[in-house]
Amino acid sequence: MQHQDLLKAEQLTFTLSWLPNHS
Fold first, then answer.
1. What global pTM score does this model have?
2. How far apart are CA 2 and CA 23, in angstroms?
3. DSSP labels for 1-23?
């Protein structure tokens, strides 16, 4: 797994868990 892919996945997870709380 590339480091960039891992970073992208973590950012996506962070955004997904942040969006519902901020709705």
1. 0.48
2. 32
3. --HHHHHHHHHHHHHHHHHHHH-
Angle at 21 between CA 18 and CA 19, to 5 degrees: 40
Distance, in Å, from the CA atom of 10 to the CA atom of 6, rounded to the nearest integer, reads 6
* CA nearest neighbour of 1 among 10, 13, 19: 10
User: For residue range 1-23, what is the model confidence (pLDDT) as tens digits?
Assistant: 688 999 999 999 999 988 776 65
CA distance 2 to 6: 6
Whose structure tokens read 């942040």? 18
